[in-house]
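2.7 Reproducibility. Because tokenized structures are sensitive to small changes in the input, we list the exact sequence used for RNA polymerase sigma factor, including any N-terminal residues retained from the expression construct. No trimming or masking was applied before prediction.
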Amino acid sequence: MTEDPAPDARSQAASTDFVDFVVKSTDRLWPLALREAGSDFHTAEDILQDTFLRMFRLWDRISLREGSLHTYARKAVRSAVVDLYRRNGCGRVEPSASLPDAVARTTYGSIPGAEELSDLSVLALEAIERLPPQQQRAVTLLYLHEMPIADVAEAMGVKPESVGRYLRAATKTLETMLVSAGKDVAR
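Resulting structure tokens (single pass, no recycling of outputs):
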């Protein structure tokens, strides 16, 4: 009795599809994982690896679903963060007012392409971290994840008009922070 070669062909095609998805989506998921990991690059890498491992295990089912695989991946990143912190007992972090300069340079220096980041870019990233949660999330989703406003509104559970208000308030706050730091802000 001979085996049907179709399952191997299907699994090979699914594997190729998954590899293509990982290659295309890593750049889009990295900022989210990094943000969720509190700018810890090693933890962000663990989160992405865990996300992709989970998705690979379910790839045959989730690749056939209606909707965006990227949306599923963003939810999987958040789920991986929760599981990581539960598993490692990392929920008890002592906050500090600011990072020492050496740590801040090391942290941002690990961002791919960070050597090209200007002081203004690093200052802007630090300013975004100090925004109120809703404003921070709106800015992160719209500008770092390049999501349309409608998708940002859906992800935040608010109306698109509310996203616009959060973005306008965030823009004013960021501009004030950067100007007070002595940086020229061009619109």
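Confidence is low (pLDDT under 50) at residues 102-116.
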